[in-house]
Amino acid sequence: MTTVRIADDALALACGADAVASAFAQAGCMVERVSSWGMHWLEPLVEIDGIGWGPVSVADVPKILPVSRNDGEDLCIGPIAAHPFIARQQRLTFKRAGKTRPLSLDDYEATGGWAGLHRARTLSPAQVIAEVTGSGLRGRGGAGFPTGRKWQTVAEAANPRKYVVCNADEGDSGTFADRMLMEGDPYALIEGMAITAHAVSAQQGYIYVRSEYPHAVARLEAAIALSAAIVAPFRLEVRVGAGAYVCGEETSLLNSLEGRRGEVRAKPPLPAVAGLFGCPTAINNVLTLTALPHILAEGGAEEYARLGIDRSRGTKPIQLAGNIRCGGLFETAFGITLRELVYDIGGGTATGRPVKAVQVGGPLGAYIHPDRFDLPFDYEAFTAADALIGHGGIVVFDDSADMSRQARLAMQFCAAESCGKCTPCRIGAVRGVELIDRIRAGEDAPAIARSRREDLVLLEDLCETMRSGSLCALGGFAPFPVLSALRHWPEDFA
């Protein structure tokens, strides 16, 4: 009997994977639902004996079966593992992508699952923290804070009651790596949280997932139940957020987790000292936690530290989205350039038009001009360029994009999503939308032109105030897309 493997994550389902799977089953095949390879432009992607076809519709099934026929050659991509998009990657966090059934404990253990946790539990908490510190792992959610240093603070806190919290409130535009891991490799996240709990001596953990991810929530709850005995005495629960973007900020998330309004807390105290319910809390995002099983496996920390450049060590799962021909998940070591990612790997725009800009780091990330595409994927390099890596999402725009409109969207987004606690964010974003509207509506009369020049200066001043005066990154980073659009595409504001 022919075994057919088809992904069952949210993206594959949205592309019609269930109907394709049913068609293969009705044709007499054994269908296995697996995690996604991350080649999203090919979904639904069908794999038979390592050979891939995609994107496949129900009407294409008779072309592929029996496999010896050649009718489906136009859909065949050859051996999936040898496809250039996959072969060029260095997959550590996503090493099981496309290869395992998400809820199969046998599949997980057969591919090295639980080895990191078992080894971690033979070490003292201090030794685990030392290995994570030595690996160079930094938070994969935004600021890139050293993970080992954060854990050390939690471990040294006097309060014996401690928590581990996973920030799975993946809200940035063009990002989907967290969703793919939670739906496709949930045990890796559970293992990473159990390792963290051992390192900081925590007893309880929570995964805070955005409400827009119902498939991930269901998958995690099933995986937690199936693996409870393996990670015991560590206890783990899923909590579903209400969709507020600001709850991606760790203190807002903790407020929401406690049943309170999702609002930014002033720091200090840091969550590592007084976090969830006032107790020391290790809060990390999905990509950080799922890197841990590899790092704690024998020799994993040394291998991780060898990858990357400067202070950005290890691999980074990068998400290619927007107007791009080959969108999907690409994991590689830090140091790769935007030019390679957009052109060599992504294949340029889906429309075939020239690339005008890319936005890296979500809706608050800077717009980067093609002249700067030699910028390496590195935390410090992006910071020096007034940009941010954030969660690693890259959104591509072609030359039809109006960058003044994109700048307005950034301010409008900030105004809509602000928690309202600080004035620079709450009021500044609203005034920013008004200013950009005035600038975009400018006329050629001399008096209006003078007013427009003044508004441009005022907009830059407003952005600087928001950057320096906002309590959190929502207001602090909203000026990045605005200022970068003004700097690189002034003609769009004329």
Provide keyphrases for this structure.
16 strands, five-stranded mixed beta sheet, Glutaredoxin, Rossmann fold, Ubiquitin-like (UB roll), 494 residues
What does this 3D model show about the protein?
The structure is a single chain. By secondary structure, this protein is an alpha/beta fold. It has four domains: 3-86, Glutaredoxin; 105-306, NADH-ubiquinone oxidoreductase 51kDa subunit (Rossmann fold, 3-Layer(aba) Sandwich), CATH 3.40.50.11540; 308-398, Ubiquitin-like (UB roll); 403-493, de novo design (two linked rop proteins). The chain is 42% helix and 15% strand. It has helices at 10-14, 17-26, 61-64, 84-87, 105-110, 115-120, 125-135, 147-156, 177-184, 186-200, 214-231, 250-257, 286-296, 300-306, 338-345, 379-384, 403-417, 423-426, 428-440, 446-469, 473-477, 479-488, and strands at residues 3-7, 30-34, 46-48, 51-53, 76-79, 163-168, 204-209, 235-240, 281-285, 308-309, 312-313, 315-322, 328-333, 355-360, 367-368, 393-398. A five-stranded mixed β-sheet has the order 2-1-3-4-5, with helices on one face. Strands 13-12-16-14-15 form a five-stranded mixed β-sheet. β12 (315-322) and β13 form a beta hairpin. α7 crosses α10 (186-200), α7 (125-135) runs parallel beside α14 (300-306) and α10 (186-200) crosses α11.
